[in-house]
Each structure stands twice: as C-alpha cells, then as structure tokens.
Amino acid sequence: MSANKWRHAVSTGGSAANKGPSPAKPPSFAPAARPRAAAPEASRPAWAGGKLLRYAVVLAALLAYPAVASSFFTFQIGAQSLILGIIALSLAFLAGYGGMVSLSQMTVAGIAGYVMAIFGHSAVSQISMEWPWWLASLLAVLLAVGTATLIGIVSVRTDGIYTIMITLAIGVAMFYLAQQNYTVFNGFQGFSSIFPPRFGTLDLRDPVPFYYLSLFFALLSYAAVKYIVRTPFGIALQGTRDNARRMRALGFNVAAHRVAAHAFAGLLAGIGGVLLVWYNARISPGTIGTSALINILIIAVIGGLRHPLGAFIGALAFVLLQNFAIDMIDRERFNLIIGGAFLLILVFSPDGLLGLWHRVRGLLRPARKQ
Predict the structure, then answer these.
(1) Inter-residue contact 79 to 216 (CB < 8 Å)
(2) Could you say which of 60, 90, 219, 261 is the most buried, measured as most Cβ atoms within 10 Å of its Cβ?
(3) Higher-scoring residue by pLDDT: 39, 218
(4) Nearest Cα to 287, choosing from 272, 300, 302?
(5) pTM for this structure?
(6) Which phi-psi region, left, alpha or beta, contains residue 251 (left: φ > 0; alpha: ψ -120 to 50)?
(7) Of 252, 261, 301, which Cα lies nearest the Cα of 151?
(8) CA proximity to 237, closest of 222, 220, 259
(9) How confident is the model at residue 348 (pLDDT cuts 50, 70, 90)?
(10) Coil, strand or helix: which one is 191?
C-alpha cells in the first residue's frame, strides 16, 4: 500500500475488510459522579456556627447596660467608649482592609466638631451661626467626608511610613491652625456649651438617652464596615492592600479605591466627631492635638487593627485605663500606664486583644476528630 493510500485509509477509517477487528477500547478512568459536597465553612452565612446567638447576647447586654450601670459608667465609660470606638473604627478600616495607617482620623473628627460649633449653637455667639442642629450636623459630616477625601488624594500614592508622616503632618497643621486662628476657630479657647438637641421631654444630654444615641451609631458603623468589606469594592480594596501592583495589572484603579476608602472612613470619623463634641459639650485645639491623634492609633492597635470589633474593645480598655489609672499612679504619669499596656499587647499579641482572645480560644478548643 502506498503512502497516499495509507493516509487515506487512516483518515477515512478504511474499509471493513481492511480494518479487521476493532481493538478493544481502553477502560475509562473518568471519576464516577459523586454527590455534591457540603459548602465549605468560609461560604456559610454569617449566622452559621452560633454567631447569630452571640450577636444577640452582645446586643442584649449593650441594651441592658444602662439598667445595671450608674450614670457615671453609662455616660463616662459606655458612651465615651462607643464614640472613640467609631473614630478608631475608621482607622481600623483603612489600616486593616486598605493597608493605610492614617494619623489624621482624629483631625477629620475634629473638623466635624468645629463645624458643629461654628454653624450650630455655642457659647461663642459672635462666631456661631446658630443653624438648626440637623443642618449643622449634616454639613459637619459632609465636610468631614470632603476633608478625608482630600487627605486621601494627597496620601494614597505613598506607602508605609510616608503615609503615616503625611497624615501626621496634616493633623499637626490643623492643630496649629485652630490654635492660632481666632476669627473662625476662636484660638486656644475653642467653643463651649455645644449640646445635643432636645426632643420635647427627651433630653439627649442625659446619660441614658445619649448612651443609646451613641450605641445606635456605633452599631450602624460596625454593620456598615462588615458589609463594605464583603462587597466587590471591599474585596478589591483588600487586594490592593495585599498586592497593589498585581491589582493594577488586573485593571483596577488602585488610587481610586484608596481615595474612596478614605472617604468612607471620613464618614465614620465625621459621625464620631459630632458625637464627641456633644459628649464633651466643647471643642478646642487640644481635642485634635498630637496626643489625641496618637491615642486613636493606640486604641485601634490595642483592640486589633484587622478586626472591626477590636476598635470598640480597644476604646473600652483605653477609657477604663484613662479613668482608673490615676488611682494607681499620679495623673502626670498616666501616659506611662497607657504606654506600658500598649507595649505589652504589641509584644504578646501584635493582633491586639481580640487577636489574643482568638488564640486563647483556639488553644482551649478541643481538637476536632479527623
């Protein structure tokens, strides 16, 4: 048989006479169909594994807290921890999910507080414009978002220590501007008698109503962060945190995602700033001083930067130390207690108190059967 006839026979299968008996087909090694496996643990809903029950217990405890606590613990400890936790949550969102450590979150909150004092009601009647509280608070939050967006535009093209230094410089510049400007910010005296609104017989200046007001916005902020980080934007933001160069190669606008993250963090900080000025009933340059900027970082690190709940745990620990450390040491040496606690947590648990809790719970949990 010639080569051409051979190729023709192979391509057409040849005649039945020439083919002879067909060889047996090799056995198939395709795996048999198996039943679909259960969904992995990571893809199960948030309420799986008793999480819903834990959330319900925590929420019930927070709601019942004023009934068992004194006015001092309700207002000075509870409300203050929730407010500082909201501001620290804005930093935890930027650092934990965006990889951007910003020291200007207290500056953004302070701007919201100053807007409330300037456009709302205060004892400095020659400066305050006495707008309705709802209009002044809305403007305060909007300007806080705008300020955070501008800070993001300036700082997002840097990384690491450069971001920290830029945001610290912005915070220090704002401090000196408020301290030296008397026409708008009333200098080092600031503003006083900035009270939350009253609704008929309900006075939000009372400890219990103000606690529930702070709790409402704290829960709303926490839920917003938990939702945002699960959206496509939040997932992409975490991708820029892990590998910005790869995200750029995939076509993502890394700078735009980071600026948007700053804007959202500014929303949280603005809400916290309005509550903070209502809590203190005043605002001054000391509210946004260097120590206040660093305190927010300390709170976020103590609780755990990678955990939204850690911001509130760190705020509670900070407030408790702030109020009761003077019983153990002189007031002038209060920062020694804060610094010592900060160093101990960093040494034994870089992921904060919440990370330490997860480690301890993992060690105590009995080994699962293989």
Answers:
(1) no
(2) 90
(3) 218
(4) 272
(5) 0.82
(6) left
(7) 261
(8) 259
(9) confident
(10) strand
**Hey, what are 200's tokens?**
């008929």
SS3 string of 152-173? HHHHCCCCCHHHHHHHHHHHHH
Angle of helix 161-180 relative to helix 105-119, nearest 10 degrees, comes to 20
Q: Which amino acid is it at 142?
A: L
Phi-psi region of 347 (alpha: psi -120 to 50; beta: other; left: phi over 0): alpha
For residue range 285-344, list pLDDT tens digits in order.
999 999 899 999 999 988 888 889 989 999 999 999 888 876 666 666 667 777 777 788
97 Rama sector, left if φ>0, alpha if ψ -120 to 50, beta otherwise: alpha
Residue with the two structure tokens 């093209």 = 157
DSSP string, 21-68: SPPPPPPP-PPPP-PPPPPPGGGS-TTGGGHHHHHHHHHHHHHHHHHH
8 Å CB contact between 91 and 314? no
